[in-house]
Fold this sequence. Notes:
The chain has 8 helices and no strands. It is mostly helical. The chain has helices at 3-15, 33-52, 62-71, 76-103, 112-134, 139-153, 159-169, 172-201. It has one domain: Cytochrome Bc1 Complex, Chain C, CATH 1.20.810.
Amino acid sequence: MSNAVKVAEWIKERIRLKKGKPIPAHVNFFYCFGGISLFLILLQLASGVFMLFFYTPEPDKALLSIAHLSNEVTLGWLFRNMHRWSSTLLLATVFSHMVIVFYLKAFQNPRQLTWMSGVFQLLTVFLLVVTGLILPWDWRSYWSFAIWMDYIGTWTVGGESLQNMLLDTFTLNAAYFIHILIIPLILAVSLSFHFKMVRRHGISEPL
């Protein structure tokens, strides 16, 4: 059997779905960070959709539109702070979930694809936080963007080229659509696959 066929069989075996498995008796609070993360993602979605109606992705209007949302729109301050602080909590819970999964060795066979999709989601959530931080376009946003560009420029392989490309193509409008459309779509697809893998293989046993 060729290596390509072996790889295809390995992936097929792990993607094939079966009936959902019951929750084991050993599951406790530390197994709940995945569910907490999903709740925070839905909270981000709800608050983000609300904010879409008031935010203006233009450098000279972005901060003013956020001030209008926070100070003049009914419950605007609540939705803005909900979106802002739940993003930080989301990054923390996804990271905690990954640490716990690693500690429990739940990334081992046959859950490798579940683990890899989870790592990918951590990176995706991180990109959501970074792009969201840029959108107010205040002094913090500007310097955060500048620091990230400087950091990317230090990468040994392709860093300078990527930095130049990002600087040449960056607009607040582009960052806005990446934040509200591109990354959420990628996250939704990844979550769908992740949940199918969890349903396929169930919850890991304790050490």
